[in-house]
Design a protein that fits this description.
The protein is α/β, with parallel strands linked by helices. The protein folds into 2 domains: 246 residues, P-loop containing nucleotide triphosphate hydrolases (Rossmann fold, 3-Layer(aba) Sandwich), CATH 3.40.50; 115 residues, Roll (CBS-domain), CATH 3.10.580. 40% of the residues lie in helices and 24% in strands. It contains 18 helices and 16 strands. Helix 8 links the parallel strand 7 and strand 8. Helix 7 packs parallel to helix 8. The model has no long low-confidence stretch (mean pLDDT 85).
Length: 378
Amino acid sequence: MLLLIEFKNVTKKYEDGFVAIKNLNLTVHDHELFVLIGPSGSGKTTTMKMMNRLIEPTSGEIFINGENIAKKNPVKLRRNIGYVIQQIGLMPHMTIRENVALVPKLKKWDEKRYMKKVDELIEMVGLDPKEVGDRYPDELSGGQQQRIGVIRALAADPEVILMDEPFSALDPISREQLQEELTRLQQELKKTIVFVTHDMDEAIKIGDRICLMKDGEIVQLDRPEVILRHPANEFVRQFIGEERLQDASNIPDLEELMIPPITAYPTRGLAEALKYMRNKRVDHLVIVDRYNQYYGVVNIWDMRKAYKDEQLHLIDIVQKDFPTLKTSDSPEKALQMVNESKTGFVPVLDEKNKVKGIINRSSIVSYVVSQLAMNKGE
């Protein structure tokens, strides 16, 4: 995983002696939706604003892609970092298209290029550019305006996007829609997003990792399910809330959902593999080498199509782009991927690309049945 943003021993102390940030060390990874959360005065917004130099640290260093941002022109730095705030900040005298095109225009992009990009982004958040493009901000609803605020931050194709409680002023329905829109956009565009919130439900829903802060320090930084399952201390437990912790206790570990895969070497012939599949009563094989390194998946239908060619082996028909999970992925992601899978199963790989197991609809049902049996026994 590439390192994109890094804080090294960063402190922020104000003239009145108040220390907002205390010797902060953290990293934000490439293509990660990283959530900063904590009570008022915890330092979450200060931390975020130091990333685009709206606030300067008293000591320590901040790097983006290996470059010390203190050595960069702050105006140029900000033009390459998207920024979305609660107040939206759309220019009232500019049309929606003009608002979205503002930064690309300042960066002297070709007009045809950026206007095409603007319309694509408007469509991407479910709005019609022909319908809203020439309107002014006050002619749109609050939820529509915030959508425009998000895509304006995306218009110049920045590597990093900072979002400071962008949805907190919206009604619950608009807020939920925009949270879903953001996670969809993140998966599609693969940006690095730093998102500040005070809402734990929002953090859990959208975050790849959550950084919980208190009094200018990190209390716990981890994936949502790890924080839910293993809160670091009583402060974290109270901030999460007992109801969420009880809900989390019902979520299985990824290993509890896994079953052993039916594997085959890539050099195996098709006739031999077909017989093996018949004996094992499966319609897919997970292809691995002798070190258990993952190659991909072969299904029965592709095998039947290729069967007449006696020269072919499994390596010749393997699907290398078959969706997979990592052992570090959340159980929620696993359940979603299996549910969306056309084949009904997903291989699980470790960080070295070795196959650890598969999760399929049958293994999920088996887990649920076992839990029901256990609960009945209680």
